[in-house]
Amino acid sequence: MKTFSVTEFRKQFPILQTVSDSDNIIYFDNAATSQKPLVVVNASQHFYLKNNANVHRASHFLSAKATKSFEVVRAKALKLINANFENEIIWTKGTTDAINLVAQSYGLNFIKSTDEIVISAGEHHANIVPWQHVAQQTGATLVILPVDDNGVIDLNAAQKLITNKCKFLAVNHISNVIGKINPVKELIALAKQYKATTLIDGAQAIAHLHVDVQELDCDFYVFSAHKMYGPTGVGVLYGKQAILQSMPPYQFGGEMIKKVSFNGTSYNELPHKFEAGTPNIVGVIGLGACLDIFSDEQFTSMTHYEQQLNHYLYQQLNNIEQVQFLYQGCPDIPVFSFVLSGFHHQDVATFLDSKGIAVRAGHHCAMPLLESLGLNGSIRVSLAAYNTFNEVDVFIKQLQALCLGELSEKEQSSLSVASD
Ligand code: PMP
C-alpha cells in the first residue's frame, strides 16, 4: 500500500496553509463540510474562463466541450460507487435534494395508507422530514428503528419492526452525530424479504468508506459532494435503473422533456428526466476534479491514516474526565460527539474558536436523537484526512486547559453559566 503523506495532502488545500499564527485554523468541522483542494477551485475557474456554455442543448463548439466535461463526471461517479449504468447517476443539489426527489416522486406515488416507512432514531433531519411529509400525505405510518448503546441501529429490534407492511426503508450508512457504521447490508436484506424499497443516506460515509451499491443491493444511495472535498450545491442520487424508470419526474421544465405541445408533454430518458433546468455545471465539474482523490490506492492509504487519527483522538478524549461521549466505544470514522460536564456545549465551541479551533455545537440536525438522550446539544469534532496528530494535541491541550480552569479573566468572563 502506498503510504499517505498528510503533509503533501494538506498542501492541496489553500485554506489550511498558515500565513501567520493569528491566521492559524484547526478545522474540525468536516462532517458539516470539508475544505476544498486546489484542483476543485482550479477546475471551476478553468471552466468559467475557458469552457463556459450551457450543456446538452446548443450545436456550437463551446457547448459540446462543456457537455463533454460535464458528462465525463457521471462515469467517474459510477465508478466511485460501482453503479451498473451511467443513467443511474442523477445530479442533485445534494443529499437533502436527493432524498426529497425520492420522497416526492417514489413516496407520494407508490406508498399507500396501509404501508409503513421505516427510518431510524439516528437520522439527520434530511432523512426524517421528507418521510414525515410522505406519511402525512399518504396516510402511511412512520416506524422508527432504535439505536443501541453503541449508537448503531439495533438489528434485533429491526427484525421485529420490519414486517410485511414495510414499503420503504430509509436509513443512514453513518450518522453525522454518532460516527458508527450501521449494518445497512443486513437491513436492506431484511427489507427485501418483504419486497420493500431501500434508500441509504451516504452523506457521512462517502468520504470515509468504499461504497459498492451493487454489493449493498440498495435501490437508492445518496450523497453530497461538499462533504468529500467537492463543491457545495451538487450531489448524487444513485437509483437502480428499473426503479428510476418507473418513477414520475420530480420537477418539470427544460431538459427533462422529449416533446412539448399544448396538448401534452413526453418526458426525456434517464438521467435527464430527473434533471430539470440548467444543472450545476461547474459544481459537477468540480466534483469530477475531486473524485481523483478517491482513486483506489490513494483512498486505501488515506482511510488507513484517518483510522490512526481516529483512535488517537478517541484515546486522548477518553483521558479527560469531563468528556462524556454520547455513545459507547470508538466511532468508526472520526466523528465524535460529547458533552463536557460543567460546561455548556456552546461555551466550549466559543472557547475553542477563540483558540482557532473550529468545532460544531448544537443539535447537528438530529434533534430527535439528542432529545432521546435528554440533551439539546453536544459538541461535535469531526476530522478529515488533512488533519494531523499535532492538531489533535493542540485541541486536547486547550480542552484540558478549559477543564482545569486555566483561563484568563477575559476567557472566564466570556463563558456563560451552563444552564443545561
Ligand atoms: N444526512 C446526513 C447523515 C448528513 O450528515 C447531512 C449533512 N450534515 C445530510 C444528510 C444533508 O446533507 P446536505 O446538507 O448536503 O443536503
In summary, what is this structure?
The chain is of the alpha/beta class. It has helices at residues 6-11, 38-51, 61-81, 95-110, 129-138, 155-161, 184-193, 213-216, 241-246, 281-290, 296-318, 345-354, 367-372, 389-403, 409-414; strands spanning 26-27, 89-92, 116-120, 141-145, 166-172, 197-201, 220-224, 235-239, 257-261, 264-267, 323-325, 335-340, 357-358, 360-362, 378-382. The strands form four sheets. Strands 2-8-7-6-5-3-4 form a seven-stranded mixed beta sheet, sandwiched between helices. The protein has a four-stranded antiparallel beta sheet with strand order 11-12-15-14, covered by helices on one side. It has a two-stranded parallel ribbon with strand order 1-13.
What amount of the residues lies in strands? 15-25%
Content-based structural category? alpha/beta
Net shape: globular
Q: What integer is the average pLDDT?
A: 95
Number of strands: 15
Q: How many distinct helices? A: 15
* C-alpha termini separation: 48 Å
Largest sheet: 7 strands, mixed
> Which segments are poorly predicted (pLDDT under 50) over 5 or more consecutive residues?
none
What Rg, in angstroms, do the CA atoms define? 23 Å
